[in-house]
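Moderator note: this is an archived Q&A kept for reference. The question asked for a predicted structure of one protein chain; the sequence and the answer are reproduced below.
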Amino acid sequence: MSAPAPRYTLITAARLLDGSGAAAVEQAALLIDGDRVAALGRAADVHAPTGAAVDRHDYGAATILPGLVDAHTHLVAPGDGTLGDDVAKEDDDILLLQAAKNARTLLHSGVTTLRENGAKGKVAFSLREGIRRKLAPGPRMVICGRPITITGGHMGYFGSEADGEAAVRAEVRKLLKEGADYIKIVASGGSTRTSDPNRASYTVAELAAMTDEAHRHGKLTAAHCTSAQSVQNCLDADVDMIIHCIFNEPDGTYRFRPDLVERLAKAKAWVNPTLYVQKAGIERQREAREREGRLTPELVTQLDAARRALDVKLDAVRRMSEAGVRMTAGSDSPWGWYAPGEFVHEIHMLAQAGLSYSDAIVAGTAGAAVSIGVGPAAGRLAPGRTADALVVRGDPTREITALWDVLDVYQAGRRVERGTA
């Protein structure tokens, strides 16, 4: 009996963005062979082999682009304002169910690849394996497992506290043994109750021990930095990505640091500014407390101060980008008040910070993929690459909010079923 003829999928639309930042291909087509891109270009020039069976999908005045790549998630969180300290009190099996639900939501919103930036225990490892085995739907995952932090430091409740050069190096080895794809370092305090976000945590020597151990095994590092000293320490230690990148002084005042920006650009370090998580915290907390009748004058003052701080950060991202610092889009959702499935908000915020719509889209596709170490596998549409694609109504290079209007998502060549159940 002869083998069945290969079956192709042919997607056509008004335009196609390949994720590289190049101009859109007009009247475009994407031909998929199995899980790979076979060809792309003008519809008049893209054809399946003669005699091949073809599934055809014409989306009219829509845009085809690569599946989105979210460089920063915390899938164990609900995104409803619950503090991380309280998230960590949940049993791991409940957190795994929460993470699986969030992963499905992200996939349905168009995110086909993500980097998980820290979960409790072995939850991230279990979810990644479950998605790989097709036990649950979700994006492909790049994981750190757990963030490494000082005793009592931000996210220490997830299970990887370590102090001193020997101990932090050993923790890197332990995480790599468990299957971590990269190493997440908490270089300053954060929202954890026992930490101070305005002060550096690890010393340069401790940070260097972790980056050296990770790099010896071919792994990238990324560091949570909400203070100027922590950014400086991470640059001294050759960390690959600076997360948040807030130049706060120990007393909480903000001072833009052109010297550190120059070093970031020279080092070609990636910056993941996580803008919308702050905006979500301001807007959704105000709405929630207003509904509850608990919007006190004190809280209004705090939220107004937070909005002013966000404006300062937006300006800082603009200035960093103009100085040549590489920006990647990572949502930090569903942390805090940032609900899952809303990665588009982060791409939009980068545009508000001065990136062109085209550059903001690259930051959430090819740029994000390169920043998390999966550039050859995700974020772009090109012959031979994995066929992860998103189809949206309208033209996001003219109006970025078109990314919200998802018509279909394709993961490894297969159309994702996006029912409401």
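Archived answer notes: The radius of gyration is 22 Å.
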